[in-house]
Specification:
about 230 residues; Endonuclease III, domain 1; globular
Length: about 230
């Protein structure tokens, strides 16, 4: 069932025109990316939590290279919760920030054991109680594993939504609320995955390909004309 959500973070409600424009943006992205899901490899919910934490500041490809060894060595949250940090560090070293990431995934596994008997909850408020799990990671898991409508706001979603004039906010939670107000719930999960893909492929932070961008006519980024000139050179 499609439920139209409520107000934006500033308390206003999107107009029909704003919703229509937002829908057009989404339809273009659906055409561009008919299939979209995370590129991270995982076999179950707790593995997705772990690889999402490892994916910070690196590529999904890098994470996919280390994940098989990690999950072969630690095949359950209980095993990872008891792991020696120095052993985990060796495995995740190539993903960068390996000490911090090791600490995070061990604590995450300990919390899963202590709070939820090793089961990943399908509820955002319970997910964010896990150390190292913010709304973004929780939303990825909800959408990917449990099919619960969720919008994960990462750096790509933040940039793309801002440039397209879908939000004026900079705080991820406020951006999430603005997007949820603009779009029906049944599009939320598909939307954030496509924004992420579009942000990686086309609307790059430093070198966006505005000259060939399918969404140029919807874009409100002031530098788009100059960037279009550069990207078509
Ligand atoms: S025109 Fe440029 S800045 Fe605007 S959405 Fe497209 S790539 Fe991004």
């Amino acid at each position: 069932m499609t439920v139209m959500p409520g107000s934006r973070s500033d308390g206003t409600t999107p107009t029909r025109t704003e919703r229509g424009r937002a829908r057009s943006v989404f339809n273009r992205l659906l055409e561009q990316y008919p299939e979209s899901r995370t590129a991270l490899d995982y076999e179950n919910a707790w593995q997705l939590l772990v690889v999402t934490v490892l994916s910070a500041q690196t590529t999904d490809e890098n994470v996919n290279k280390v994940a098989p060894a990690l999950f072969q060595r630690y095949s359950s949250t209980a095993e990872l919760a008891d792991a020696r940090p120095e052993d985990v560090e060796k495995i995740v070293f190539s993903t960068g920030f390996y000490r911090q990431k090791t600490r995070s995934i061990i604590k995450l596994a300990q919390d899963l054991e202590d709070l939820y008997d090793g089961e990943v909850p399908a509820d955002i408020d319970r997910l964010v109680k896990l150390r190292g799990v913010g709304r973004k990671t929780a939303s990825v898991v909800l959408a990917e594993v449990w099919d619960v409508p969720a919008i994960a706001v990462d750096t790509h979603v933040k940039r793309v939504a801002g440039r397209l004039g879908l939000t004026e906010e900079t705080d991820p939670e406020r951006i999430e609320k603005d997007l949820k107000a603009l779009y029906p719930t049944d599009t939320w999960s598909a939307l954030s995955m496509r924004f992420i893909q579009f942000g990686r492929d086309v609307c790059d932070a430093r070198r966006p390909e505005c000259g060939s961008c399918e969404l140029f006519k919807f874009c409100e980024w002031p530098e788009r004309f100059e960037a279009a000139g550069k990207s078509t050179l």
